[in-house]
């Protein structure tokens, strides 16, 4: 009995040893590599600071990359496109609308249109030129808290935004960029509002003569034709449609009407789209922050709210003072010389340090 139990013990020990030797031992380097891969995989979808904005940025990252690549190579194309579209509107205004204004408008309205139109055009051209040719500003050394723009391959301070300027928007050309958007929006609104009746007349004229040409080719007249007044009702009541003497619709008239329609549609569309962008930047300026600082301030406000504290933007000097700092207004005359007229003065500070500090509620008695 004792020998039997000893034999069973030796058999079980042998089987246990065989099972140990039969296990596949993974090298330590391979284990570390697998653990590192798992860590990387987990970092792709887990983050203690994750929120909806981070998720949207991650989803739109391929779109951002595509835009960066296209913008890097076609920045000059965008500049040419902006110049071409703006020049086309100016050409139509000078050669189509200005003669009409001079012959039909009273002297007071002629004076208003000429003065405002040329002032708005000068402001648009000046600020667009300065925004495209003014360096946005680079920090003296590479800093981790300074945004890096992959399109420009450099750091800018503190408002990186690659636009149709073929240039980054930074501290030193932010005012030019915003002023360009503002005055271009005002110019588009001016063209859209002042040309709305010309647009309606041009559209009606083209539609009217299109129906007249269709009637000449034998297209039957419908009730719609009677409704818009193309053919008189007595002509339809009779046996045939009477010939109506109409002034000739020349090629010059057609091009004039199409130019008016083109200008109104273009300026109205740009006014809506660019107006929304300008309004968004105006809100940021009123708050004393940039688009990047907005995300930082929101996170800081949430973090301090958990501790029962209120976060205040250290770069916000008050709504009116933020605009004064942005435009560089130091006295009342600067609202005219630096805001309403072209001005090439430099902004406050260098984008990293500021010379103006809110020691009082109103830092500048303007």
TrEMBL record:
Subcellular location, principal:
membrane
Provide the topology term for how it sits in the membrane.
Multi-pass membrane protein
**Cell compartments where the protein resides:** Membrane
Q: What is this protein called?
A: Palmitoyltransferase
Report domain Palmitoyltransferase DHHC positions. 149-295
Which InterPro entries does the record match to this protein? Palmitoyltrfase_DHHC (IPR001594), PFA4/ZDH16/20/ERF2-like (IPR039859)
Could you list this entry's UniProt keywords, alphabetically sorted.
Answer: Acyltransferase, Membrane, Transferase, Transmembrane, Transmembrane helix
Pfam families given in the database record: DHHC
The UniProt transmembrane annotation reads: 70-97, 109-129, 176-199, 261-285
Quote the record's domain comment.
The DHHC domain is required for palmitoyltransferase activity.
Entries under PROSITE patterns matching the protein: DHHC (PS50216)
What is this enzyme's EC?
Answer: 2.3.1.225
What organism does the record attribute this protein to? Danionella cerebrum
Where along the sequence do coiled-coil regions lie? none
The UniProt similarity line reads: Belongs to the DHHC palmitoyltransferase family.
Q: Which PANTHER family match?
A: PALMITOYLTRANSFERASE ZDHHC16
Q: Which GO terms describe its molecular function?
A: protein-cysteine S-palmitoyltransferase activity
Instruction: Give the catalytic activity.
Output: L-cysteinyl-[protein] + hexadecanoyl-CoA = S-hexadecanoyl-L-cysteinyl-[protein] + CoA
Name the domain of life. Eukaryota
Question: Which cellular component, as a GO term, is one annotated location?
Answer: membrane
